[in-house]
From TrEMBL:
<dbReference type="InterPro" id="IPR010982">
    <property type="entry name" value="Lambda_DNA-bd_dom_sf"/>
</dbReference>
<keyword id="KW-0238">DNA-binding</keyword>
<dbReference type="GO" id="GO:0003700">
    <property type="term" value="F:DNA-binding transcription factor activity"/>
</dbReference>
<dbReference type="GO" id="GO:0003677">
    <property type="term" value="F:DNA binding"/>
</dbReference>
<protein>
    <recommendedName>
        <fullName>HTH cro/C1-type domain-containing protein</fullName>
    </recommendedName>
</protein>
<dbReference type="GO" id="GO:0005829">
    <property type="term" value="C:cytosol"/>
</dbReference>
<dbReference type="InterPro" id="IPR001387">
    <property type="entry name" value="Cro/C1-type_HTH"/>
</dbReference>
<dbReference type="Pfam" id="PF13560">
    <property type="entry name" value="HTH_31"/>
</dbReference>
<feature type="domain" description="HTH cro/C1-type">
    <location>
        <begin position="12"/>
        <end position="66"/>
    </location>
</feature>
<dbReference type="InterPro" id="IPR050807">
    <property type="entry name" value="TransReg_Diox_bact_type"/>
</dbReference>
């Protein structure tokens, strides 16, 4: 199991790359140095709560969403491989973040239905990202 410092760094890197940001761009948006962001991503530094808040905002997330992504990574590391066939964790408590609820719904779908939902989601995303 990875340690918390490495998990935080892995999630920050994944979210940064998903948004096609460089370390420098993320640092500028978060008001942090490029070196410090790199150290966080490599699991060499523990970010403070304030730094996590700045990183979340720079990534377009609220702090709760960033922390939920970290929690998902921790759960993934702790679960046996066979329980993560599709990579989803079913919510176990009320008021779970939206991502977790959506994952629960997707888990109920058959393979062909998942592809349809994925295609529709891609369509909606393309409409959302295209300037009107």
């Amino acid at each position: 199991m990875a340690d918390l410092q490495e998990t935080i760094g892995r999630v920050v890197r994944q979210e940064r790359q998903y948004r096609s940001l460089t370390i420098k761009e993320l640092g500028e948006k978060a008001g942090l140095s490029e070196i410090y962001v790199g150290e966080i991503e490599r699991g060499q530094k523990y970010p403070s709560a304030k730094v996590l808040e700045s990183l979340a905002q720079a990534l377009g997330l609220d702090l709760a969403e960033l922390l939920e992504l970290m929690a998902e990574e921790i759960r993934k590391d702790r679960e046996p491989e066979y329980t993560r066939v599709i990579g989803f964790t079913i919510p176990t408590t009320p008021n779970q973040p939206r991502r977790t609820v959506v994952k629960r719904i997707v888990n109920l779908l058959d393979e062909g239905e998942i592809e349809s939902v994925a295609n529709f989601s891609a369509f909606l995303l393309s409409k959302h990202l295209t300037p009107q």
